Amino acid sequence: LELLCPEGVMAFARINNLKKLDAEVLELVKMIEPDEVDDASILTNLGKMMNNPTLDGVAVEKPVGIGVAMSAMGPLPIVMMPLSDPAAFSVKTAGNENVRVLGTFAIWSPDPDLAASVKVAEKPSALVQSLLEGDISVAIDAEQVKPMIVPYLGMMDEYVEMMKQMMPGPVGEFYAEMAVGMKAFIMDAESLVYAANLKDGQLEFVERYTAKEGTETAKSIAAVKTSRANLLGYVDSADFLALEMRCGGEEIWESFG
Q1: Is 80 exceeded by the pLDDT of residue 201?
Q2: How many Å apart are CA 216 and CA 183, to the nearest integer?
Q3: Does pLDDT of 11 surpass 50?
Q4: pLDDT tens-digit profile of 85-141?
Q5: What is the rounded distance in angstroms from the CA atom of residue 40 to the CA atom of residue 46?
Q6: Helix, strand counts (H, E) of the chain
Q7: Which of 49, 78, 122, 241 makes an SS bond possible with 109, Cβ 3.0 to 4.6 Å?
C-alpha cells in the first residue's frame, strides 16, 4: 500500500482495518447523532461510489490508503483499496471510469486522471514514512496546503486589530499576540501528522507538528527545556490526547495528558 501513494499528494491517510473502523464510526455516530447512522457507513458509501454496493472482491479488513491531490476541480481524494478477488471486483465495477485495478489494489477517484496517475513506486515517499501508528493515521504536507490557507490569514490580521481596539491594554495585547503566534505556527509548519484510535465509542488522538528549521516557531520550540510535561487538552468523546513537537526532525517536546 505504501508504494502506491502518488507523488505530489498534499495529504495521505492510512486506515488499518476499514471494516473495524466502519463499525467503530457507526457506534460513535449512534451515540452522538442516532438519526444519522444509516448514512454514516464508510463501507456503504465507498461501495456506492464504485458501483459495487457490497464491495465484492475488496479485502475490507486490510489497510486502505487515501491520498489528496490537486486536480482541475481542486483537491480531490484518491482511494487505494486491497483486493481479495480482482476479477470479481472488475466485473462489478466494469464501465466505471473512476475505478481501475492495479495489481491487487482498486484505485478510485472522482477524477479519472488522478486514478490513472497512481503507479507502484520503488520506495515509500517521505510523507508516507512519516505516518504514525493508529487505526487511522494522516500525514499532511504543510507546504502544499499553505497556498490554500494564506488568503484566509488576512482575516487573522483583521482580528488582531479588532482585539486591540475592543480591548485596549494587556488583555487585547494578549489576544493579539496569540493570533500572531497562531499565524506563525501555520506559516512555519513543515508537516502535520495525526493518528487516532477508536474503541468503544472513545477516541485516542496523537498529533505531531514539525516546524521548518530556522523559523521563529522552530526556535521557540527549541527553547522549551522540559522533555515531558502534562498537557491539558480536550477532545470530544476522548480520554487521551498527545502532542509531539519536533524541530528539524528532532523530538524536543512530548506531552501526554
Answers
A1: no
A2: 11
A3: yes
A4: 999 999 999 989 999 999 999 999 999 999 988 888 888 888 888 888 888 999 998
A5: 11
A6: 8, 11
A7: 78
List, in sequence order, every residue forming a beta bridge with 253; answer none if it has no partner: 245
Buried b (16+ CB within 10 A) or exposed e, 196-222: bbbeeebbbbbbbbbbbeebebbebbb
CB 81 within 8 A of CB 108: yes
The grid coordinates of residue 4 equal 502506491
Alpha carbon distance 218, 211 (integer Å): 5
- Nearest by Cα to 62 from 36, 82, 33: 82
- CB of 96 closer than 8 Å to CB of 50: yes
**Terminal CA-CA length for the chain:** 33
Angstrom distances, CA of residue 178 to CA of 15, 181, 190, 249? 34, 5, 20, 25
Record the pTM: 0.74
257 touches 230 (CB < 8 A) = yes
pLDDT of amino acid 120? 86
Rounded CA gap, 113 and 115, in Å? 5
To the nearest whole percent, how much of the chain has pLDDT over 90?
A: 26
The conformation of residue 83, written as its DSSP 8-state character, comes to B
The contacts of residue 92 (CB under 8 Å, 6+ apart) are 50, 51, 52, 56, 57
| Burial of residue 226, with CB atoms counted within 10 A of its CB: 0-12 exposed, 13-18 middle, 19 or more buried | exposed
Mean pLDDT to the nearest integer, 64-84:
91
